[in-house]
Amino acid sequence: MNAIILAIGDELVLGQTIDTNSAWLSQQLAAVGCEIRCHLVVPDDQQEIQTAIRESIATCDFLLISGGIGPTEDDLTRQALAKVLKQPLQLNELWLQELHKFFEARGRKMPEMNKIQAMIPRGAEMIFNHAGTAAGIHAKLRRLPLIHQLSAERGLEATYESGYDPICHFFVMPGVPKEMKAMFLCDVLPHIREQGGGAVILSRTLHTFGLGESAVAELLGDLMRRDKNPSVGTTVARGVVSLRVNARFPSREKALQELNQMADACRAALGDLIYGEDEQSLQQVVAELLIQRNTEAANQNKSFTVTTAESCTGGLLAAMLTDTSGSSAYFRQGFVTYANEAKRELLAVPQEMLEQHGAVSEQVVTSMATGARQRTGAQVALAISGIAGPTGGTPEKPVGTVWIALASEAGIAARRFLFAGDREMIRDRSAKMALTMLRFHLLNKPMPF
Amino acid sequence: MNAIILAIGDELVLGQTIDTNSAWLSQQLAAVGCEIRCHLVVPDDQQEIQTAIRESIATCDFLLISGGIGPTEDDLTRQALAKVLKQPLQLNELWLQELHKFFEARGRKMPEMNKIQAMIPRGAEMIFNHAGTAAGIHAKLRRLPLIHQLSAERGLEATYESGYDPICHFFVMPGVPKEMKAMFLCDVLPHIREQGGGAVILSRTLHTFGLGESAVAELLGDLMRRDKNPSVGTTVARGVVSLRVNARFPSREKALQELNQMADACRAALGDLIYGEDEQSLQQVVAELLIQRNTEAANQNKSFTVTTAESCTGGLLAAMLTDTSGSSAYFRQGFVTYANEAKRELLAVPQEMLEQHGAVSEQVVTSMATGARQRTGAQVALAISGIAGPTGGTPEKPVGTVWIALASEAGIAARRFLFAGDREMIRDRSAKMALTMLRFHLLNKPMPF
After folding, report:
1. In principle, which of A67, B358, B385, B432 could form an S-S bond with B311, CB 3.0–4.6 Å?
2. Cβ atoms B202, B247 nearer than 8 A
3. What burial letters (b/e) apply to B139-164, b meaning 16+ CB within 10 Å?
């Protein structure tokens, strides 16, 4: 079972946008044991798209196409596919209705040009798009080796080698990553799984935040040896160091059993440094802990909420705490006190303290947390004050210096961090570190670093 | 003059690493007028690499290969190239000396396995690597259309169409981005320029927020016709609809002149809907307008600041307003009033109003903005209250319903929006729409939608 991944778009071929869809699709396919033959990126040119599709059919079971099904004239994937299939495009009434509904809900009339997004080659299946206006397409075609196709174009007769699986499945998905991912997981992946049968590759990803990649690798030691099956590798994204465990075995049962065993070994090595797995974000995990604590408190007729007082992160921590639906249970309000006067007025940080120690100091961040907790009556208050840069650094407090405090019934803990990277990275890491301090507070455990 | 870009590596095909080399190479090639036919990514498999090279020769003047020339067993590009060229690999003494020097300078003996990095197919040229141990390769081969190659493999005679340029240049470069870039700029680009004399492609991107892709396309009308040069295409990312203008002309001067003209025509069609170009974000553009207004106010000994009162966006708008360095000039504080009691206590929203109209209403969002402005003395206050979902929707106020208000000296404007997508998208669009309302307020112009 193998696949070719074809991405379509001038912006990709011109290098103006980096193709991230293909890498994501590869990961998904590898996880179900589907081999990836190659990635191919072609421009919004009907002839080039047709050639790419024709050449791919020769050598793969699945052709996954993303991009070129928008409503504008430069979107030509459906036309190219129809040509290769030698079928006319037909209006799919079901999707046309969905389009009308989509625009009606927004109080607008559907622009005439969007109608093309409901056109599907005759005989192909429409795939629902739950996140946008472009319907996907699923079609099948006899796999014809390229030499035969070329011969056929020249009027020669095509012959099949024996034992040659003659069907290639095409899936056309939107280029917008979010829409593509939703469509792939809902409607494409099940088809591929169904065809599977060979070796099963199961994966699990375990996420950590707080230590660097090499420090995590040191803790894992021998578990990361290259020749292991299941294998363990690390990746880093936005400060989160993730362990990817891949188990490749003939049967699903065996793969799952080995995967669980290896994941347990990783958990034993890293302990609570691992905050979650697979699609779980740090935000979600903390939200779940907060909802749980809130429910426990409510059962005792008590309240449990958290509040925020942010300087350099400017609201990012509050936004992360409210990322998850249901956050109103534990989050009622937060303060963005960017200026010193705001820290003074809204959080009662003393002017002398600001003058004596500066806004980025243990004293001020502690005072911010205490002030926010008193002002709101929340059980826990988190405060952040730091230098996100690129300007404002000094030798004693370089760019990246961030103080974070957590105030609760049990007292106040404040810590100084030095984060690397640009302004955006420093703000992101600061908010995530505050969430991590909150997480260990809720777990009632000391931070492991 | 055209090129195919071939990247080699298991980690790319498995999606563990995103291929950024190909996008960079595309930008470089486009800038000298070399058309890019496609990007191709194949695994570290000698057969697959050979096939990719053979198929590419058929259709391009330049084949740029990156990756697979390291010292380890899974690096097979040079072997594959030698097979396609039907030449043996020979030791390049000059590069072997360089390798010895490289290791000596580091006080180490050259490991035996690195010797392979000095092996070059007979008849090909070695390219110096100024940043690493893998020598590059430059080779030429008669371009053979694929049908002829396949026929030749089957013992049939190949024929050339007349007027067919029979030479394809191959360049093999390291996969490490730093080494690849240095080698390309020093030793590959000059060859391509020399062959060129061809066209120059210049690009510009114009960004809009507020209207959908098809509505923008309708406003552009004929400017988006496929046969235009410069051409105009649209892409969407996180609610931002961008216009990509590409001008392809024989000289740089002509290309720049035509590009400017077409960009002006787009600006004429879309007006202030365009908020910025190329690397500019909405956040940056609004920050610049705010800094400008703040400076003007300061010159008159006045103050100009903006504050925020956020419900469903939970701090995201404040975080966007403080994205840019220097934001302390215009942003001092913001309120995250997620719960009704917080709206009441921090912003003085009347309890009866909350009960009568609900938190997501014109009345409440207006009261939030007024309250925030009065509380802080800021000149402008933005307030957001909406239903980010996935729960909480009703038939009258479905998920995605968001009220945004802007309060200033001039009065209060409030608008209702209905955003599509999931919780994360609705929150992101809400904050961006608030920034957009602020932008038009600062421009002293009505919103164009």
Report:
1. B385
2. yes
3. bebebbbbbbbbbeeeeeeeeeeeee
* Model confidence pLDDT, tens digit, residues A53-102: 988 887 889 999 999 999 988 899 999 999 999 999 999 999 999 999 98
Class assignment of domain A2-195?
A: alpha beta
Is residue A341 over pLDDT 60? Answer: yes
CB contact under 8 A, B327 and A314: yes
Residue in chain A lying closest to B335 (CA): A335
Q: Which residues of B touch A36 (CB under 8 A)?
A: 13-15, 43
Q: For chain B, which residues make up each domain, given as ranges?
A: 2-196, 200-277, 282-443
Residue type for position B362? E
CA max distance for chain B: 90
Q: Do A43 and B36 touch (CB under 8 A)?
A: yes
* Euclidean distance between the first and the last CA atom of chain B, given in angstroms as a whole number: 44
> Nearest 5 degrees, angle CA B393-CA A287-CA A370?
115
pLDDT band for position B159 (cuts 50, 70, 90)? very low
Q: Which residue has the tokens 């067919």?
A: B164
| Nearest-neighbour CA in chain A from B224: distance (Å) | 7
pTM above threshold 0.90 = no
Q: Which amino acid is at B132?
A: G
Report the distance separating Cα B310 and Cα B320, nearest Å: 12
Preceding peptide of A448 cis, ω within 30°? no
Which of the two residues, B192 and A313, has the higher pLDDT score?
Answer: A313
Query: Which of B38, B219, B317, B402 is the best residue to mutate to test the A interface, defined by the most A CB atoms within 10 Å of its own CB?
Result: B38
Cβ pair B243, B236 in contact under 8 A = no
The B residues from 120 to 139 touching A (CB cutoff 8 Å) are none
Tell me yes or no: is domain A282-443 CATH 3.40.50.1000: no
> CB distance B43–A23 less than 8 Å?
no
Across the strands, what pairs with A300? none
Instruction: Report the CATH fold assignment for B200-277.
Output: Alpha-Beta Plaits (3.30.70)
Of B429, B440, B443, the residue nearest B317 (C-alpha): B429
∠ CA B140-B142-B148, rounded to 5°: 145
Is the model more confident about A279 or about A137? A137
Structural fold of domain B2-196: Molybdenum Cofactor Biosythetic Enzyme; Chain A (3.40.980)
Q: Is B226 on the interface with A (CB under 8 A)?
A: yes
Both tokens assigned to B4? 């195919």
Mean pLDDT of B180-191: 90
How far is residue B425's CA from residue B445's CA, in Å, rounded to a whole number? 27
Integer Cα distance of B301 and A354 in angstroms:
25
User: Residue A410 has what DSSP assignment?
Assistant: T
CB–CB contact A39 B233 (8 Å): no
What does the alpha-carbon distance between residue B106 and residue B109 come to, in Å, rounded to a whole number? 9
Per-residue pLDDT tens for A367-421? 999 999 999 999 999 999 999 999 999 999 999 999 999 999 999 999 999 998 8
Residues A308 and A434: their CA atoms lie apart, in Å, by 10
Give the mean pLDDT of A228-254.
84
Give the list of residues 6+ apart from residue B360 with CB closer than 8 angstroms, or none. B311, B312, B385, B386, B387, B397, B401, B402, B403
Instruction: Give the side-chain half-sphere CA count within 13 A for B216.
Output: 28
